[in-house]
């Protein structure tokens, strides 16, 4: 379970060592898990953002395919986009888009 949670081997070894020391290390073990939870949460947020970008790109190219040109999705205003992509489009506007 610890490896699946992304915990490093160093931290797993530390956890095992602390667990073997007994109840006096409960707080240290708890802090170890809090720290790993924060790391995992940040990774999940990053992965969700990546998925959102991929969803947008799929929509973008499906729209371009149906129209026969990338000019159609490129020329759309933010208000014309599906609602789930509006904030993402604003964020992506700050980064050069390569077709």
From TrEMBL:
Hey, what's the signal peptide range on this chain? none
A Gene Ontology molecular function term of the record: DNA binding
Keywords associated with the record? DNA-binding
Q: Does the keyword DNA-binding apply?
A: yes
Which residue numbers delimit the Transcription regulator MerR DNA binding domain? 2-55
Gene3D superfamilies xrefs: 1.10.1660.10
InterPro entries this protein is in? DNA-bd_dom_put_sf, Tscrpt_reg_MerR_DNA-bd
Name used for this protein in its record: MerR family DNA-binding protein
Q: What taxonomic classification does the UniProt entry list for its organism? A: Bacteria, Bacillati, Bacillota, Clostridia, Lachnospirales
